[in-house]
What we know:
alpha/beta, NAD, Alpha-Beta Plaits, 5-stranded antiparallel β-sheet, RCK_N, potassium, 325 residues, ion transport, Rossmann fold, globular, potassium transport, disordered C terminus
Amino acid sequence: MKIIILGAGQVGGTLAENLVGENNDITVVDTNGERLRTLQDKFDLRVVQGHGSHPRVLREAGADDADMLVAVTSSDETNMVACQVAYSLFNTPNRIARIRSPDYVRDADKLFHSDAVPIDHLIAPEQLVIDNIYRLIEYPGALQVVNFAEGKVSLAVVKAYYGGPLIGNALSTMREHMPHIDTRVAAIFRHDRPIRPQGSTIVEAGDEVFFIAASQHIRAVMSELQRLEKPYKRIMLVGGGNIGAGLARRLEKDYSVKLIERNQHRAAELAEKLQNTIVFFGDASIKNCWPKNISIKLICLLPSPTMTKPISCPPCLPNVWVRKR
Length: 325
C-alpha cells in the first residue's frame, strides 16, 4: 500500500516505523528537514520537505496514486486542508486526520464527511483520553473498559480479588451464577503471563481477567471477580487544559465536580463555560492551595505539557489517578 504521512513528529515517526516494515511504500512529509533526515537514516522510506497541505508538495509525495493519506501534523487546520486537497485534486481513497481541538471534535459528525471536510477516520487523542478516564470512573475497580458497537458491547479488564464469588472456582460456574447474562472471558493474565481460558480454568486472586459483555452487564460480571466499589460521587480534577475541561464537562452532569487550574485567566474562562463544576484558581503543587475541608472520593491529575513541578496531594484522598504526560 502506498501511504503518505504528514508530520514527522512523535506520532508520525512512530507510525512510519510501524508501517514501513509491512511491505508498504511510505512517504513522510514535514517542514522540518532535520526530522526527515533522522527518519530516512533509520528506515527505508521517502521524505519530502514542505507544507503538507500544499498541492505541489502532495504531488511530489506521490498523491496522484497514493492509497492513503494520514495527516498527523501539530496543526488541525493543516490536517483538514490536506485531506480536502487529497480528496478534491487527487481522489485519494482513504484519508485519516488527527484533530485535537474540542471545538472541532464536538461537531465531528457534521464537519467530517464527504460533503463537508472529507476525512474518513478521525483521530482525536485527547477525546480518547477523556473517554477512557470517564469509563474508569463509571466502573470503579476496572483496570480498563473499551466500548464497541456504538457503546452496546464492552471489553473490560478486572483484577480478581478475594471476596469475588468466582475466586477459586472454574469459569464454567459463571453461567450458574448469572444464567441470564451472556459473557465471554477472552483472556486471563496470571503473574504477567497469558492463560488461555477454558471452562475448567480456576480463577485465582490476582488474575487479570479480560471479559466481553453487554455494557449494561459489566458491573454484574465484575461482581463475580471482586467486591464492587461504591460509585464515585465527588471528584476533583487538577488541570484545566483540553482534557481537564472536557472531562469536567462530561462528568458534571452526573457527579459533583471540582477543578483546580493554576492559570488565572484560564480558571475564569472555565468558570464561565462549565455549568455545574466549581473551579478553583491555584497551583496544585503548593500544599496550602487545596480547598479546605474537601470531601472528595477521587482525584484525577491531568498535568499539561508545560507543568514541571510535582503535585502534592492531600493525604486524605483515597483514590488518586495520574495521567502521565
